[in-house]
Specification:
2 domains, 419 residues, 43% helix, alpha/beta, eight-stranded parallel sheet
Amino acid sequence: MESSIRDPSLAPEGHRKMDWAARHSPVLDAVRGRYLEDGSLRDLGVAICLPIEAKTARLADVLAGAGARVAVAAPLPFVVQDDVAAALVERGVTVFASSESPPEEADRDLERALDAATADGEALLIDDRAALVRIAHTTRRGLLPRIRGASEETTSGVAKLRAMERGGELRFPCIAANDARCKHLFDNRYGTGQSALEAIMHATNLMFGGKRMVVAGYGWCGRGIARYAAGLGARVVVCEVDPVRGLEAYADGFEVLPALEAAGTGEIFVTATGNKGVLGREHFARMRDGAVLANAGGVDVEIDVEALRASASEVRRARRDVEEFVMPDGRSLFLVGRGMVVNLTAGDGHPVEIMDLTFAIQALCAHRLANEGTSLSPSVHLLPREIDDEVARIKLEAVGMGIDEITPEQRDFLESWRE
């Protein structure tokens, strides 16, 4: 099946981006050399649903180099870099993605990626928000016998997979790559913390110092956003539905308020909950003139953009990635990146070094499914701790650092109840 991209002539710039990512991906390089050259991925299909940018392309390139038949599509056109898509095609990867595709055609491209990966045999899935898994269980059910398993990149996607498992609907094993410590501790906290704020600053050209920032959600992503915002001098308010997380935010030095109360005083709002309708019509009605709204969570409906649009008397473009919503009372609210995941719609995504860890985890998930997928139950599986430890150890070696080894005496002390 032939690729479908916007413009093949853009490939040179895409190659430069991929080469930069490769230069800063020592962990993925080590995983390729130590594990992926065993031949287990040779002639196995891999369908990938991820934002198409340099780090994702690096993962696809590595898997293709290990002999896999890789097909890539994006969850939405807003997260497609056309130059990277063109470079991937030149490197032998099948790509179905264009930044100019209508959003409603995203599922069509994902279906084509599934079809391409399974055309000549079995395949693995590397998924974002369980999109490929959903399609395989609905419009492409005939492909289920060819799918050896999937690994899931996002918190919201893992939640959907667990819901499928509880309902008895899941038909193949899925590894919760997101739940690996080297993924959620680093990607969600440090990656989201830096890249979401970087995207908002770049899109608005505003400073954070002194401003009152409201962070909705204090999971790993929210923790990272609050931490980085405080480091930039923002006065951080956290909104939560979990009392323990709310108490944690308080102990970390942040004010904790219900969202409706925070709505009246916030200057910048960032959602990071993984749930819908976190900021809605009642919140917009209380917000001050000039408030900036952005979503850093993995669900594009955390901010009710439809309600925001319906509430406004006028909508106009303020900057390239910023829309201005003029309310009937004259206030203006500014939405960054269409209310979708802001670090990708208005930025370049997570730092390369963070995604090096995440995609090393994904490569090892693919390796495990290639070797053990047929023996795993059709349920949600955690990545073994020793794989997580190996990724962290490789990273420490790459930066010239190391850790101690526990002694036999220490292990005996920990494992014996008599001492």
